[in-house]
Amino acid sequence: MNIILFGPPGAGKGTQSQLIVKKHNYFQLSTGDLLRKEAKNKTELGSKIENLISKGNFVSDEIVNQLIRQSIVNLKFRDRIIFDGYPRSIEQSKYLDELLKEFNQKIDLVISLSVSREIIEKRIIGRITCDKCNLTLNEFFNEKEIHLHPCGKDHFVKRKDDNLDTVMARYDIYTKTTKPVLDFLSNNQNFHEIDGTLKINDITTKIDTFLNV
Predict the structure, then answer these.
(1) What is the pLDDT of residues 65-98, one digit of tens each?
(2) How buried is residue 102: exposed, middle or buried, by Cβ count under 10 Å (0-12/13-18/19+)?
(3) Statement: 3-115+165-211 belongs to CATH 3.30.1120.10
(4) How far is C-alpha 106 from the geometric centre of its chain's CA atoms?
(5) CA separation (Å) from 169 to 3, 47, 58, 110, 207?
């Protein structure tokens, strides 16, 4: 079963994806992680990506599609992919459809985490990510988990793009570009919207009911 997990920046897509990976042995394909990895490698493409991300802009469909293709080609197993943050546009959605057909794959489940702009503002200020295992927590809400983290609390850092103005710019772009994709996919019987303001465990439980059908 391949999954698309939608949600605006700060909605908790990464957290839920990681839980699905651990519990159900899935592979998380995060466009954000792919872009940050490319930027960290200091390639010509990476420099272009970093410049766009730092300004709160989304990277072009062409670049994102290229990274997604490279990842799927190199995967050792399929039918257990979580597309985290992809597709974000109609063009990306069309490309994904053709790409999956090429590898005899399909999307079996679409989940959208719904979170208001106001909640995102409150969440994003405290978000930190482990630079070793990529676990994302909130320094205001997860103080104990951060202190006891196996990698060590010193590995938690704020992402460069995690400032309020930048994230809100990304939220507004997300709303404008991704809403048409959600409107299109919401007609699919496998589409489910979940309140992203629920507790993490409650969201996980709802997702599990769809995975265990």
Answers:
(1) 999 998 888 777 678 899 998 998 888 999 999 9
(2) exposed
(3) no
(4) 19
(5) 26, 20, 10, 25, 28
Which residue's structure tokens are 């809400």?
141
- Per-residue model confidence as pLDDT tens digits over 154-191: 999 987 766 778 778 878 888 888 888 888 888 778 89
Closest CA to 99 of 122, 134, 138, 73: 73
Rg (CA), the chain: 17
Q: Which tokens in the block code for residue 129?
A: 């990510």
Amino acid at 101: K
Q: Which residues are bridge partners to 138 per DSSP?
A: 127
Cβ contact 71:85 at 8 Å? no
Supply the pTM of this predicted model: 0.75
7 with 112: CB under 8 angstroms? yes
Among candidate residues 10, 48, 37, the one with its CA nearest the CA of residue 136: 10
